[in-house]
Write a structure and sequence with these properties.
Blueprint: H1 2-29, H2 39-49, E1 56-60, E2 67-69, E3 74-78, H3 79-83, H4 87-104, H5 108-135, H6 146-185, H7 190-226
Parallel strand pairs: 1-3
Antiparallel strand pairs: 2-3
The structure holds zinc ion (ZN).
Zinc ion (ZN) binds next to helix 4 and helix 6.
Protein name: Peptidase membrane zinc metallopeptidase
Pfam family, one: Zn_peptidase_2
Keywords: Membrane, Transmembrane, Transmembrane helix
Length: 230
């Protein structure tokens, strides 16, 4: 029962935050930037200002699909952001470049996060195996005692939670770098700056909700496996 409640509460919270984010972006996308720069131009300017010349700016499909790829050093902007000349596009383009700057400066939290990617993948696979096994024949996985299954589940889920928590400083720092640069470069009016800041705040909120959901689920698993069962 407990797990269903946690899932439902955070599913609702996640929906509310992502809906708010979409509405903010929609609103700020309609405000044309005084400087009339596109997301692509903003990104290229920010990279050049940080002496980064080996990162390419690409246009990718989808909405809010924007990301920085450290593997091939690309800033990938969605069509709306790439061509957009507004406060929302500015915020996203500069944020993704913030990740490129982190990468170029070997920012510790980003390095740690990248190092954890394989462990996160394995943990996810382990949890899937346990879930499938528990659907067929109960929690006594491969004849393992209940406590041993608990160690596996809690261990794997701890890794997923750690990953979602380490994502937070990486995301907040990228936004801070973006906003600091935008301000110092003087390419937005104070009003546009406020909009960019608000858009990034709501984008960060989605990561906060994900991390909280992960922590709550971990606490639940710890309780059912190792809690007081007298
Ligand atoms: Zn980010």
């Amino acid at each position: 029962m407990g797990i269903i409640l946690i899932v439902v509460v955070f599913a609702i919270l996640g929906y509310v935050v992502s809906n708010k984010l979409k509405n903010k972006f929609k609103k700020y996308s309609q405000v044309s930037l005084k400087a009339n720069l596109s997301g692509k131009e903003i990104a290229e300017l920010m990279l050049a200002d940080h002496n980064i010349h080996n990162v390419t700016v690409n246009c990718v499909e989808g909405q809010l699909s924007d990301h920085y790829n450290p593997m091939n050093k690309t800033v990938n902007l969605s069509t709306d952001v790439y061509y957009g000349r507004n406060a929302a596009a500015t915020a996203v383009a500069a944020h993704e470049c913030g990740h490129a700057v982190q990468h170029a400066n070997s920012y510790a939290w980003l390095k740690l996060r990248s190092a954890l990617v394989p462990i996160q993948n394995i943990s996810g696979k382990i949890l899937n195996v346990v879930l499938i096994a528990s659907l067929f024949g109960g929690i006594a996985l491969f004849g393992l005692p209940y406590e041993a299954v608990g160690v596996v589940v809690v261990g794997a889920y701890s890794m997923l939670t750690l990953f979602s928590v380490i994502t937070l400083p990486v995301e907040f720092d990228a936004s801070n770098r973006a906003l600091a640069w935008v301000k110092q470069r003087n390419i937005v009016t104070p009003e546009e700056y406020g909009m960019s800041k608000d858009a990034l705040k709501w984008a960060a909120m989605t990561y906060v909700v994900a991390a909280l959901a992960s922590m709550a689920t971990l606490a639940y698993y710890m309780f059912i496996f190792f809690g007081n069962r007298d």
